[in-house]
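Hi support team,

I've been running sequence recovery on a batch of backbones for a student project. Most finish fine, but this one hangs at about 90% for roughly twenty minutes before it completes. I'm not sure whether the input is malformed or the queue is just slow. I've pasted the structure tokens below so you can try to reproduce it. Let me know if you need the job ID as well.

Thanks,
M.K.
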């Protein structure tokens, strides 16, 4: 199937986001930092904010369970911007090239809190290059739920079978494929460039 639409994930593909960028400043003991991120402020906990739960509620829940880490837990929201390490320049260059050719509409589908995404919009001007962005936290659902892939197709009026979805989560890639999309697992900008050649988007 010829690719007629590109659909990007954002975090881990175009934007370098990782809680460790913040928590390396907070914890002197890196083992304790890893304990905190794996047992306290976990990815599962964070994904509930991506699905629409307010950070204020999420913070209260964690502090009740882990009062020892109340300051560190609050930092997850109030110092959230420090988790951003800037754009992934190689992918932004690919995005720029796609925009210059103007052949394909380009959208984004991201798991992101509705409360923190406005910060990213201000920091990264290239987010304005998209035709549109579907933010999970604004919709009350997140990848890999089939519902969010269906909503994306309906909202953007795109055909999944001719849409190439790019995500750094293999779980989300496989979910997209099950929903009828073509999809690739993002690992590096160089690999993505080769994937775009193999899908006929770029010339060799």
């Amino acid at each position: 199937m010829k690719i007629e639409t590109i659909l990007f994930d954002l975090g881990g593909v175009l934007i370098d986001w990782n809680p460790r960028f913040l928590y390396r400043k907070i914890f002197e003991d890196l083992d304790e930092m890893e304990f905190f991120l794996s047992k306290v402020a976990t990815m599962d906990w964070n994904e509930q904010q991506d699905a629409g739960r307010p950070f204020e509620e999420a913070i209260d829940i964690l502090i009740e369970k882990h009062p020892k880490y109340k300051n560190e837990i609050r930092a997850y929201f109030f110092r959230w911007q420090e988790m951003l390490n800037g754009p992934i320049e190689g992918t932004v260059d690919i995005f720029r090239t796609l925009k210059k050719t103007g052949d394909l509409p380009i959208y984004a589908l991201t798991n992101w809190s509705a409360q923190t995404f406005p910060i990213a919009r201000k920091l990264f001007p290239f987010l304005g290059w998209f035709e549109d962005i579907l933010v999970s936290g604004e919709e009350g659902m997140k990848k890999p739920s089939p519902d969010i892939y269906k909503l994306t197709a309906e909202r953007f009026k795109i055909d999944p079978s001719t849409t190439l979805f790019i995500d750094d989560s293999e779980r989300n890639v496989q979910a997209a494929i099950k929903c009828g999309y073509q999809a690739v697992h993002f690992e590096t900008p160089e690999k993505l460039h080769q994937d775009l050649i193999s899908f006929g988007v770029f010339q060799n």
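--
Follow-up from support: It reproduced on our side and the slowdown came from queue contention, not your input. The mean pLDDT is 97. No action needed from you.
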